[in-house]
Amino acid sequence: MTLGVAILGTGRLGGNYIKSINASDGAETVVVAESREEQVSDLKTANPDIEFVADYRDILGRDDIDIVVGTLPHWLHHRAAIDCLEAGKHVFLEKPMALSTVEGDEMMTAAKAANRLLMTAHTQRYFGENIKMKEIIDSGELGNVVMVNAMWVKPLDTHLRPPWMLEQDKGRGHGPRWTELILSIG
Questions:
Q1: Same domain, yes or no, for 23 and 7?
Q2: For residue 32, which phi and psi values (nearest 5 degrees)?
Q3: Residue 47, by phi and psi: left (phi above 0), alpha (psi -120 to 50) or beta?
Q4: Which residue in 17, 82, 104, 147 has the fewest CB atoms around it within 10 Å?
Q5: Residue 91: closest CA among 68, 58, 114
Q6: Separation of alpha carbons 43 and 15, rounded Å
Q7: Quick one: 84 and 172 in the same domain?
Q8: Burial class (CB in 10 A: 0-12, 13-18, 19+), 87
Q9: Are residues 129 and 80 in the same domain?
Q10: Which residues of 98-137 are buried (b: 16+ CB within 10 A; e: fewer)?
Q11: What is the pLDDT of residue 176?
Q12: Residue 77 has what pLDDT?
């Protein structure tokens, strides 16, 4: 069985998802929803078997779409995810999943109600060192861990980011991050 995938948005990562999905066994990119024609002209040429639509809502009623990959601007995740979940699609979103806890809770409630998966694209959960740390914590070797705080150093590179990503109400102002791991053991 091959799962049909729709990609919502092409921004910084959307085009990369076409390659990743199509290289995966059991999945294929069926449609890309992107309202900006200038973003998809090259993708259309390179991917003639993929349909391109301007509005993600055009995919909601389609039976050939099982999974939706959301690479939309952050402030659009909430509404699009709920719409897709309510339409019976599994949803995989680029981070951040939501702009607030309230939005995240509403999205998780929609996923549970629809009996669909909702997942955030955070590859670091699959890094060997993180898997090992989880094993150590789960083993009880460290005692009762009551808090873990992790931050990551990464250049902001504002010149490489869309302007909205620096606006607090749209992208949460993705500022510089520092690496730090604090374990509180009780």
A1: yes
A2: -120, 130
A3: beta
A4: 147
A5: 68
A6: 7
A7: no
A8: middle
A9: no
A10: bbeeebbebbeebbeebebebebeeeeeeeeeeeebeeee
A11: 38
A12: 94
- Residue found under tokens 């699609």: 89
Q: Is 32 helix (H, G, I), strand (E, B) or coil?
A: strand
Q: Could you tell me whether strands 118-121 and 90-94 are parallel, antiparallel, or unpaired per DSSP bridges?
A: parallel
Q: State mean pLDDT over 94-104.
A: 89
Q: pLDDT tens across 123-157, in order?
A: 777 888 888 988 998 999 988 888 877 766 667 67
> What type of residue sits at position 119?
M
Tell me which residue range forms the domain holding 139: 124-185
Q: Do both 79 and 156 map to the same domain?
A: no
What is the DSSP secondary structure assignment for residue 158, as one 8-state letter? G
67 vs 6: CA distance, rounded Å: 6
Instruction: Dig out the tokens for 83 from the structure.
Output: 């719409």
Pick the residue with more confidence: 184 or 29?
29
